[in-house]
Amino acid sequence: MQINDQKPIVGAILVVGLLIAGAILLKGNSNSTPKNDNANGIPVTTTTLSPVGALDRTLGNPNAKVTVIMYADFQCPFCGAVSGLMPSNSSLIQSLKQRDPNWTPSTSGIIDNYVKNGSVLFVYRDWAFLGPESVKAAEAARCAGDQGKFWEYHDYLYSHQNGENQGNFSDPHLKSFAKELGLDTSSFDKCLDGNKYTQAVTDSKNEGTTAGVNGTPKGFILKNGKLVGTIEGAEPFSSVKTKIDAALK
Fold first, then answer.
1. Nearest CA-CA partner of 85 in 214, 182, 217, 199
2. 168-195 pLDDT tens trace
3. What predicted TM-score, i.e. pTM, was given to this entire model?
4. Where in the chain are the domains?
5. I need a surface site. Which of 4, 14, 141, 248 has the fewest CB within 10 A?
6. Cα–Cα distance, 178 to 111 (Å, whole number)
């Protein structure tokens, strides 16, 4: 529905802006150097990437030989797109499909095709860079994790994105999300108000930056603990699948 003649122009500007941002994120950047000394012929890269530990948020088989570590921001629209939780008719999804008609979200593809069958361990790490609501959303998800609901809260955040730092992920809304998910709101509110995970979110971003993250989403593919590939921005699942299949050989 068009209210005035400026709507199509504004929409075109938004799409062009998204495409430019997508091109930057798709290109990505990693402070890593390719090598060719992997026994299976997979290029190995070197980077300062923190090893997976007990405090990481993980999905899947902890003994899987392939691990995917994904750095993301809960307000990042491209993170929402690759999560598979963004509506398929959104302008961003449509712009990604214009670039690649076969584009499908990578993160949901990884979980459905590899994590669920135990062949890949998926690790989510915060790289909260888009402002204060990104930081608080990351803290809130960790607070939900204290009650065993990190992934439910993670999904809720990505399915309820609505602009950046406009109040959608303000403290009152984050607390209402916890209530809707059936969490103990008293414990959750105490965790969020007490800034329990502020330092942890800061540390995660610093560690990601050291590893070469300069935008989200940014993924690292490891085989038996060695880095063998990266996921740059909103790559389609087909591209990521090729990398993971190579690592699984």
1. 217
2. 999 999 999 999 999 999 999 999 999 9
3. 0.82
4. 30-248
5. 4
6. 24
